[in-house]
Amino acid sequence: MELSNYVKELNTQKEIFEDVYLYAKDNHVPIIDADALNAVKQYIKIKGVKRILEIGTAIGYSAMHFASVSEEIKLTTIEKDPYSYELAKSNIENSPYNDRIELILGDAKEVELGNKRFDFLFIDASKGNNQFFFDKYKEYLTDDALIIVDNIFIRGLIVEDEVANKNKRKLRDKVRTFNQTMKDSEYSTSFLNIGDGLLVIY
Q1: Which is a Pfam family this sequence falls into (predicted)?
Q2: What is the pLDDT of residue 141?
Q3: Pairing of strands 74-79, 101-105
C-alpha cells in the first residue's frame, strides 16, 4: 500500500449520509473527498465554529456533514444550479439539520447577504472564480474567521505544464494564480495534500 493511501484510509470516517454519498457517486456529482471532509470537520470542531457560509451546495452533502459537527452550528449555502438546489433541498429536509441550514438559490457572484456574519467560509464552487469568491465573501467574515478552499489541485491539472485544451489551461492558470496570490498575501495559509487539495486561510 502506498503511504498516501494509508493516510487517506486513516483520515476517512464512517459515512453518515450513505444514500446521498452513493447518489453522488452513481450520478457523478462532485463532492468533497472523504479524507478532506474529515479534515475540514476537524477544523470546524477545533475552532468552535458556529456560523458557516458555503459557496457551492451541490446536493447538500458537505453542508449536512458540517452541520453534524455541533448543534450550535448554523449554515448558509449558495447554489446556482436549480436542479442541484432542489436535490439539496430534499436531502436537507430529510436530515436532522433542516432547521439549521439555509439554502440560497442564486449565482454566488451576485448574491448579497446583508449584515450576516460568519466565522467559517468554505469555497467549493467554480474553481476559476476562487479569487472572486474570496474577495467578495471575506467581507462577511468575523476578524478571526477561518477560510478553506477545496480542490486547489483540480485533480492533478495544477501541475501539468503541457495542457492542450484551452479551457483547461485557462482554469489551471487561474487556480495557480490564486494559490500563489494567497501564499504571498498577508494571510496565514496552509496548502494541504489531502483529498484534491485544501487551502486553509486564517
Answers
A1: Methyltransf_3
A2: 98
A3: parallel
Q: Domains plus CATH for the chain?
A: 3-201 (3.40.50.150)
CB 120 within 8 A of CB 53: yes
Separation of alpha carbons 5 and 11, rounded Å: 10
Residues 38, 13 contacting (CB under 8 angstroms): yes
Q: What is the mean pLDDT of each run of 10 residues along the chain (202 residues)?
A: 85 91 96 96 98 98 98 98 98 97 98 97 96 98 97 95 93 97 97 96 96
pTM of the model: 0.95
Which among 63, 41, 61, 43 is positioned nearest to 53, based on CA atoms?
A: 63
CA 130 to chain centre: 11
Nearest alpha-carbon partner for 43 in 20, 72, 69, 12: 69
